[in-house]
Design goal:
Strand 4 and strand 5 form a beta hairpin. By secondary structure, this protein is of the alpha+beta class. Helix 1 crosses helix 3. The chain has one domain. The strands form two sheets. The chain has a six-stranded antiparallel β-sheet with strand order 1-7-2-4-5-6.
Length: 211
């Protein structure tokens, strides 16, 4: 009864029996192969060409306006909420853990009316192929940058929304995986402050404390 588990997570903030296997759990073994991106869904991928921090500004430079628009981090393995079908996404890894859990619970509560139309009589989600054929999936098209900013981030106004949004290159998405709804609560259980996939000239933990 996946929808019941999500409802319980919205209510309690507890992600069931999930145990973090390591600091960089990336959902590669649990995600669904994703031929394309559907707005409103969560994805993970590995950057095809790994980037280092040579061209990145420090956090102080960015906050001081010296970075000329370049963000002080690059995530080679993001976990993002798709804001359109062309690669625009919100990297939820960079939201501090406590606020990330609040974000996920708020978001799942907002889209529960959509999810309830994508389950069978037992409360389990339809097979992914059947969901793709369901007209109810079209409701996700309305979930975009403005929708998230107004409906979800209004509850967390201190988060620097635009700092978390990136345009990802589909050609650079290696092992693109969709994180299915029963696994979405697990995103809130993982600590990413020491994730080596996130490169920065400043300690990423410093950013996560001040996001």
């Amino acid at each position: 009864m996946a929808i019941a588990l999500i409802s319980e997570y919205i209510r309690s903030g507890q992600a069931g029996e999930f145990t973090q296997p390591g600091p960089n759990h990336r959902f590669l073994n649990e995600g669904l192969d994703a031929p394309y991106i559907i707005p409103g869904h969560f994805y993970s991928f590995a950057q095809l060409n790994v980037r280092g921090n040579d061209s990145l500004p420090s956090l102080d430079d960015w906050e001081g306006g010296l970075s000329k628009g370049t963000k002080p981090y690059f995530d080679n393995w993001p976990i993002f909420l798709a804001l359109n079908q062309y690669g625009l996404g919100l990297n939820v890894k960079l939201i501090p853990q406590t606020t990330r859990k609040l974000f996920l619970r708020t978001y799942l509560k907002a889209i529960t009316p959509i999810l309830e139309k994508l389950i069978d009589e037992s409360g389990a989600f339809l097979k992914f192929e059947d969901r793709l054929a369901s007209p109810s999936l079209n409701a996700f098209i309305t979930i975009n940058r403005n929708w998230i900013r107004e409906r979800i981030f209004s509850a967390t106004p201190d988060i620097k929304f635009d700092f978390l949004v990136d345009k990802y290159n589909r050609e650079e998405m290696r092992y693109l995986k969709m994180i299915d709804w029963p696994d979405v609560p697990k995103i809130g259980e993982v600590t990413y402050s020491n994730d080596p996939a996130i490169v920065s000239r400043s300690a990423i933990s410093d950013y996560l404390k001040n996001v």
